[in-house]
Amino acid sequence: MEDFRQIQKRIEQLRDQLHYHNNRYYVLDSPEISDGEYDLLMRELLRLETQHPELITTDSPTHRVGAAPLEAFDTIDHEVPMLSLGNVFDHDELQTWHKRISGMLAHDDFEIVCEHKMDGLAVSLLYESRRFIRGATRGDGLRGEDVTQNLRTIRSIPLVLPKDAPDKLEVRGEVYISKAGFKKLNDDRANEEQPLFANPRNAAAGSLRQLDSRVTAKRPLDICIYFGRGNLPATHGETLQYLKSLGFKINPHSSLVSSIGEVQDYYNRWLEQREDIEYEADGIVVKVNSIDAQNALGSVGREPRWAIAYKFPPTQATTKLLDIGINVGRTGSLNPYAMLEPVSVGGVVIKSAALHNEDDIRRKDIRIGDTVIVQRAGDVIPEVVGPVVSKRTGAERTFEIPDICPVCGSEVIRPEGEAMDRCTGAACPAQLYEHIKHFVSRGAMDIRGVGQYLIAALLEQEMVKDVSDLYYLKEEQVAQLERMAEKSAANAIGSIEKSKQRPFARLLFALGIRHVGDETAEIFAKRFGSMNKLAQASEDELLEIDFIGPKIAQSIVAFFRQQDNIRIVERLRQAGIRMEADVAGPDNLPLAGQEYVITGKLEFSPRKDIEAALRELGAATSSTVTRKTNYLVAGVDPGSKMAKAQQLGVEILSEDDLLRTLEKYK
Ligand code: IVH
Fold it and tell me: In CATH, what is the architecture of 316-391?
């Protein structure tokens, strides 16, 4: 047996290393080791923790993936209330604020720190004996919700602080989702036909308030700390730097200034660059730097006098809703959109905006001809917030989804329990167009030479009736199409040809099976290994897989039940597209480079089967323990090899451990 204390030490060592590299990667943005090396450390820790559950602690880096769901959140009283901020909207108001506090401090040359006002939600993190023990939302300022489990999944929150950190520390900051993270999140949701988040703030709030922290763990949440309470430096600026040295992520753009003119410069600069900031910022926060001065100024009600939010102008505008148009999506959904009188919103001219669905339009009581409020957040499609009812003239019309598809004339139905109306036309050109667009898109088959014009032309000429037809096109045929140069025809055919090499998971995603996004496709490809096996899977088999729910399972089964789909898949297969998952080369097999020795009698399976399974995963097997041996698997009555292994410090596994390893890579 390996010494228990030795294992404990190794676990601590691994945790320290993982905490360190986590900080390099997620906070400092400068990793020192590769993802693969990080994974190795993580895997070793996971293995030791599985073998020794008594050594698992909640601050282990393995806990970033979430824990069992909660029934409800507990309420937490904040030890010190979480304040909010007063607002100013222009230079005059800013100056008034500055004058008032200059009066109270009896001078006006105090230092000021300017920061971005990040648009997320405020949380408090409590550390005791250097460990993250509790985290809460702001709530009403006096009490919030205990979201500790969820906060643990945020990689930029340190779970353990360095040795010289204060014994007790509270920090506060803004949990947010970056613009890029938000876009990816919503793209994925669109692919899986889940409702989209309206903006990054809603997405962050929704993600942090999940009862199942495994869901939170998959959301791209991040945090910036802007406040600390404990034994900390005498100024706000130094406090931030100190917190950074403890491993916290702080706002990267804060600036120390000493006059109100410089505050205005900071504001102007960032207002101009607002679009380029990696997260949504709705203004700047202006704070008195000296903590003594902050204390002297105190607060009024829930707002400190020593800080103020200087808000950016809203990215909302009002304009006229000229009409409501309809796009037919790839799955036949009828998506209404607003046709607007062009209006500038935060510097960008908008002519159309999302309206989601008929119920949403009705709930907001949006009518054609209304003056409406439109809003834009980051990279998101602009949306109509609602009507300005006071501007109504009586000439406005309510909107109804048509009974027949505006593109193909087929009947429109609303499947039970769904929010979207759908065209029932199996050959609806709008669906086919969107479907092919999805098939050739970057994350799918990535066929760069086939763009929107070409797709439209191919459909028009009826040269393509489903995605498999793409692979049977001839260059001469494509070159004949109007406005098609010879070179681009060759380019199109070349990139179609190249796409035959895309991995199986990509094809699975490209097929546009409802609810199957890129991640789900990866899961299926890994689990089933081939199109044939997936096509034969029953709903129950599919449901056994982690993360696969009934909607996806039903959708897969329904897809492969349709003769048309089977025909398309067969034609794709005949065209030479890969329908099997990658078989890893010997070097990237999961157990490559590891040597196993088995000794004693195994209880569950014949030794030669186990050895074969190990070799299949890339491991070498041997009958003698040497320095090269990585693991000795000890069965019943292990004999002398055990002593040899102990002497050489070779790790010893039980048959159970081994089976778990094999199971993991099956
Ligand atoms: S300081 C007493 N700094 O704005 C000071 N808040 O409207 C309390 N916020 O609840 C907050 N960025 O959620 C501070 N750099 C920043 C901030 C910030 C965003 C949020 C925070 C707060 C709200 C107040």
Answer: Beta Barrel (2.40)
